[in-house]
Amino acid sequence: MHSVVNLTVHGIGPTNRELDPGEDGTWVNVEQFEQVLDAVVGRQDVHITFDDGNASDLEIALPRLVERGLTAEFFVLVGLLGEPGRLDVAGVRELAAAGMRVGSHGWAHRDWRKLNAAEVKQEIVDANRVLGEILGRPVSRVAIPFGSYDRHVLGRLRRAEVTCAYNSDGGRANPDSWLQARNSLRHDIDAAWAPRVMDGTPSPPLRARRVAARAYKRLRG
């Protein structure tokens, strides 16, 4: 069975907003981002995704993707659109007009394992609905904040008719799987990182740990 590698970008370059605790760990500079893009060119088995709806998605990422003939999928925080350092509604539409896919990262970047009933509706149902109204078409693909899920979260997504859910479990993924593992760019990556993630073969112990961790997450709750 062929497989794919899903990469996750968060923020790129300077930002004019205060980062959340630990968020700087997934922020990369422009050179690091360009090194990853250059490694991805021509790879049909690699998918690029973006989380959080940062302004750098539009200002830095989009022109560099277009320049290389690449497409990507952007998962935005619907309730934070228009805030300093974030995409606004016009920016979301510009990404879509440029041929990029846009999905939901929820409403306000909350852990979906710790929601009450009202928050579940806002994060999973309302976010998809509002984003669909912005784009003029249904939205049914999501990226789970913090990669935090359990059997209850997966059940809620199924009931909300989500057609694809991305997590942060790492490793390669079956392209036909409803739940997709991703690999996050981090602040300390070097030029060898992307080729290593795309072409490296994890050791048997690492593969076993990943399989066990995914099984545990699906069943816990």
Brief overview, please?
With 221 residues, the protein is an alpha/beta fold.
Based on the coordinates given, report the CATH architecture: Alpha-Beta Barrel
The tally of beta strands, per DSSP, is 10
Question: Rough shape?
Answer: globular
Which structural class best describes the helix and strand composition?
A: alpha/beta
Structure write-up:
The structure is a single chain. The two termini are 31 Å apart. The chain is an alpha/beta fold and 221 residues long. The protein has a single domain (5-219), classed as TIM Barrel, CATH 3.20.20. A five-stranded parallel sheet has the order 6-5-4-1-10. The chain has seven helices and ten strands. α1 runs parallel beside α2 (56-67).
Question: How do the helices and strands line up, and which of them pair or pack?
Answer:
Blueprint (H helix, E strand, L loop, with lengths): L4 E5 L1 E2 L14 E2 L1 H11 L5 E6 L4 H12 L5 E4 L12 H9 L3 E4 L12 H19 L5 E3 L7 H9 L4 E3 L12 E2 L2 E2 L8 H7 L4 H16 L2
Parallel strand pairs: 1-4, 1-10, 2-3, 4-5, 5-6, 7-8, 8-9
Helix pairs in contact: 1-2
Short descriptors:
five-stranded parallel beta sheet; three-stranded parallel beta sheet; TIM Barrel; 221 residues; globular; alpha/beta
